[in-house]
Design a protein that fits this description.
By secondary structure, the protein is an alpha+beta fold. It is 31% helix and 24% strand. A four-stranded mixed beta sheet has the order 3-2-1-4. Strand 2 and strand 3 form a beta hairpin.
Amino acid sequence: MNTNESSKKTELTPEDLAHLGGGALGYIRQIEMPEAKRLLGGKTMVKPDAKLFCLYHADGTPVSISDSREGAVGSAFEHELMPMSVH
């Protein structure tokens, strides 16, 4: 077995990721306040210690921000996205 071939990595573009699952996949991750301010704009009315969860399209485009993981999952279904677990 050629070790060079087994270690090849597949690189996906944002466009490739956007089309995963027919464009119906998304992911949720917890975000910190600086990221929330960047996404929402500087004049956010969110407590500094709030736990926030952002729903993203598979290509990394933010869709929504929720104050709970359950809310983010609900938002995924509202936007006809299937939330996937990523690590």
